[in-house]
């Protein structure tokens, strides 16, 4: 198990598809969760999700730039309850831009517990202090009030609506500059 970091209640580690697929299906197989993620399409079954987790790990390994999608595990139960992301935002053709996004996906049973904020603070710290990124972004569907509140708790500045990422879908854009970053 490769741990990226720990917080008070959470461990963030690499996905382990054989072990985590059933727990991850509670996120990516749930239409209520998926209405806020991408096209909203749910995973068909645990096996297709296991394959997607494997492909995701391989894709980020190829990038070899410290970005990725990691499992968020409750220390108390050792269950994977969510995912935390730090990745390059894709342009409207799906190609990586120079803008780095933080994001979070959690199963419904873990909503409202502060896990997204706790994991979000840790991934922001990782982005600034390990990867030395000068700025981080978050993109949120306008109706996703819970994620908007997470961006506020992380101290992110609202930048308005944008359609320059993810196939032109209109999203709210939030920005956080690295501490002590020099403005261009």
What does this structure look like?
With 184 residues, the protein is an alpha+beta fold. The chain has one domain (3-177): Gcn5-related N-acetyltransferase (GNAT) (Aminopeptidase, 3-Layer(aba) Sandwich), CATH 3.40.630. It has helices spanning 17-28, 31-34, 46-63, 115-129, 145-153; strands spanning 3-6, 10-13, 68-74, 80-90, 96-106, 135-140, 157-162, 171-177. Strands 1-2-3-4-5 form a 5-stranded antiparallel β-sheet, with helices on both faces. A 3-stranded antiparallel β-sheet has the order 6-8-7. The longest helix is centred in the N-terminal third of the chain and has 18 residues, at 46-63.
Percent helix, as a range, is: 25-40%
The CATH homologous superfamily corresponds to: Gcn5-related N-acetyltransferase (GNAT)
Structural class: alpha+beta
Mean pLDDT: 93
Radius of gyration: 16 Å
CATH fold-level name: Aminopeptidase
Assigned CATH class: Alpha Beta
Percent range for β-strand residues: 25-35%
CATH architecture verdict: 3-Layer(aba) Sandwich
Spatial strand sequence of the major β-sheet: 1-2-3-4-5
As residue ranges, the low-confidence spans are none
- How many structural domains can be distinguished in the coordinates? 1
Principal-axis shape equals: globular
DSSP helical segment count: 5
Largest sheet: 5 strands, antiparallel
Number of strands: 8
Terminal CA distance reads 40 Å
């Amino acid at each position: 198990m490769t741990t990226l970091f720990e917080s008070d209640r959470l461990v963030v580690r690499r996905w382990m598809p054989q072990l985590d697929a059933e727990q991850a299906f509670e996120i990516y197989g749930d239409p209520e969760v998926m209405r806020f993620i991408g096209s909203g399409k749910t995973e068909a079954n645990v096996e297709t999700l296991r394959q997607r987790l494997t492909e995701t790990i391989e894709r980020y390994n190829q990038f070899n730039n410290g970005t990725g999608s990691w499992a968020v595990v409750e220390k108390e139960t050792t269950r994977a309850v969510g995912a935390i992301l730090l990745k390059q935002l894709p342009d409207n053709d799906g190609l990586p831009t120079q803008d780095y996004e933080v994001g979070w996906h959690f199963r419904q049973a873990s909503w409202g517990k502060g896990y997204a904020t706790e994991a979000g603070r840790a991934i922001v710290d990782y982005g600034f202090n390990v990867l030395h990124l000068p700025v981080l972004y978050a993109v949120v569907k306008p109706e996703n009030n819970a994620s908007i509140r997470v961006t506020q708790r992380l101290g992110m500045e609202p930048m308005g609506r944008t359609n320059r990422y993810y196939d032109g879908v209109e999203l709210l854009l939030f920005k956080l500059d690295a501490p002590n970053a020099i403005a261009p």
